[in-house]
Amino acid sequence: MYSPLTPFDGALLVDKPAGCTSHDVVDRLRRHFGFKKVGHCGTLDPNATGLLIILLERATKLQDRLMADDKTYEGTMRLGVVTTSHDADGEVIAEKPVPPLTSGDLEAALAKFRGDIQQVPPMVSAIKHEGTPLYKLARKGQTVEREPRLVHIYDLRVLEMRLPDISIRVACSKGTYVRTLCHDVGAVLGCGAHLLHLRRIRSGNFDVKDAHRLEELLQLHRQQLPPLIIPILQLARLPAR
Questions:
Q1: Which end of the chain offers a freer environment for a tag, N or C, measured as fewer CB atoms within 10 Å?
Q2: CATH number, domain at 19?
Q3: Is 87 annotated as catalytic?
Q4: Are both 83 and 177 inside the same structural domain?
């Protein structure tokens, strides 16, 4: 027999803090509020911050659809240092002097990555090889061949240039690794690079300015939550983006 929808069938927009995984956010919300089903729409690396769409109860059925939406990020790329994971969490494997780049030099490099590009996923990722996540193989010092993936970069621009650091904004399709994008830009520039900081500011129809801090949510009681939840029927009517 069909049961009516409840105020808890919907989405919660969370501003993920640094230092925890996306799964940690899901687990803490599930346990704190006593939900049976909780999911998220697009993993953020542990030290990345920003918008994490959390789906509750029957809204988890919309996970694949919402996860396919395009994303927008702001981050900082550090030139001259290459790491195993393409971000600040990895081990440094190469250091090179940063040339006196001009804004024109940087624009010429970034232009190569706008539009459709083939991106090789990093070894430190959740993509599976013969059933095993790549990051587990990387921890053992193993490297396996990864097939390039087609992703689309809608927008890639410089927000601020203070060498060796460059602040950027990236609008991209799902499955894009911004840290690998930074790594590849560094290779084109000839000095290497890695992602220093990353913040997701938009996912599909949703913006981080409308998100709630995890710490504040965990101070609420279950019955205080419904006004913050986007109802499932509203989610179902949203156009794909």
A1: N
A2: 3.30.2350.10
A3: no
A4: yes
